[in-house]
Amino acid sequence: MSTRVRSYSKINLGLAIGPTRPDGFHGLTTLYQTLDLHDLVTVTAKRAGTTRISLTTNHPFVPRDGRNTAWRMVERCLARLGVAAVVEIHIEKRLPVQGGMGAGSANAAAALLALEKELGEALPGVERLKLAAEIGSDVPLFLLGGAVLGLGRGEQVVPMPDLPKTWCVVAVPSVGVSTPAAFKDWDARRAAEAASREPRPKANDSGPQKSVGDVVGGESEEGELGEGHGVTRAVDLTSGPRVDKLQELSLAYSSLSTPTGVSLKGKTEDSRPGTSGIVRDPNPEKKRDLPGESQADAMNDLAENTLLALVRTGIGSDGLQNDFEEVVFPQYPSLRITKRQLMGSDLDGSAIYAALSGSGSALFGLYWSERDAKAAQQRVQSSVDSSDEGIAVQVFLTETLPRSEYWDRMFAE
Ligand SMILES: C[C@@](CO)(OP(=O)(O)O)[C@H](O)COP(=O)(O)OP(=O)(O)OC[C@H]1O[C@@H](n2ccc(N)nc2=O)[C@H](O)[C@@H]1O
Ligand SMILES: Nc1ncnc2c1ncn2[C@@H]1O[C@H](COP(=O)(O)OP(=O)(O)O)[C@@H](O)[C@H]1O
């Protein structure tokens, strides 16, 4: 027997990059949303004296060894369960590799669920989430599905009330954006900004000078040195108002979700903030005012139409919705154009919202109707066909996938 699982993808509805942490990762506040687009992961497992894992796939760029996320997940899960088995994994890739749609991460989560079903044995919910976080920051979200708030380095996940099922067009240009490289570019940009703000040394000032490069990696020194001193750590510049804005929104949004941590089995789990797992509101004492709206109004909107409320309360307003756009668009200018086409601002049936997903290169647009979505898909496709830039773009028509459907349809027939 074997178990076949739909390995769904995600987009990031909003993403704010925070400071570099001592472990080298960046703080992240993001709102993930799972999509109907998926790969298929099939696992066959038989208990045996020694563990042997093998992996096949239809995609030439997907690793077939211990570098594969699904392989790593299976290996670690078996070790955690204390089970030895012969495991065959097959990944039918339909999603782009390195697209910012979390496809590799989803494959890992899918392999875990399929393996557990094959063995008839499962890890406890919190163990699962911890293991998922070890494989990658993007993996735990796929153990929840639907709309998911991501905190920490993105691995601390909070289930959000589901958005209404919404039409979505995903455009994936044929450029792979490496996630670590995109974070590095972000840091370099912040460091350059900090350097340009630093006051020039006076000619007779021979004391030791602080450089931005010296001071990355900790708390702000503004308090120590006094305001206006001009020495600001590069990392502090990455945690500006955009993060606050998204965090405020997240808190408001999360107040509508379950008051305590929720396990996949419906039991309350250990949900202490700061642990890998499902966390509670990270700052329950904090007042939940939203900019420009009374709290009651905002909550009514959220209850009525969560997606509309998201757009109205901040994520979709002017300015950056995904911090990575600031570094990825200058590198690949055609992506900005594709985003505009997805948005279709001056047209009837323009997008509710459009943005880069994760570190890219996937871009997405959300639409009120299938007709609007199809028109956007057509817009992007025809401009690609007529362009001589040589960047191919795959354009997918799909829908957002609420949590209940995510689980109902996970195990493919
Ligand atoms: C940034 C996101 C947004 O969803 O990018 P996409 O991959 O979806 O584009 C994800 O969090 C990616 O998650 P995932 O792909 O699992 O990344 P990981 O394996 O955990 O980390 C890969 C590398 O990215 C960098 N990294 C990742 C997450 C984070 N919060 N800070 C980081 O600095 C680190 O250099 C790390 O070594
Ligand atoms: N199961 C997998 N599917 C796809 N890529 C994988 C997988 N396991 C490891 N990788 C590696 O991870 C990298 C990022 O893959 P992917 O998850 O598709 O990107 P993203 O997180 O941007 O959506 C790829 O370059 C690939 O070499």
UniProtKB/TrEMBL annotation:
Keywords: ATP-binding, Isoprene biosynthesis, Kinase, Nucleotide-binding, Transferase
GO molecular function, one term: 4-(cytidine 5'-diphospho)-2-C-methyl-D-erythritol kinase activity
HAMAP family associated with the record: IspE (MF_00061)
Annotated segments matching region Disordered: 190-239, 257-293
Annotated function: Catalyzes the phosphorylation of the position 2 hydroxy group of 4-diphosphocytidyl-2C-methyl-D-erythritol.
Source organism of the structure: Tunturiibacter psychrotolerans
Protein name (database record): 4-diphosphocytidyl-2-C-methyl-D-erythritol kinase
GHMP kinase N-terminal domain sequence ranges: 68-146
Gene encoding the protein: ispE
Catalytic residues as annotated in Swiss-Prot or TrEMBL: 10, 138
Phylogenetic placement of the source organism: Bacteria, Pseudomonadati, Acidobacteriota, Terriglobia, Terriglobales
Entry EC no(s): 2.7.1.148
Residue intervals of the GHMP kinase C-terminal domain: 320-382
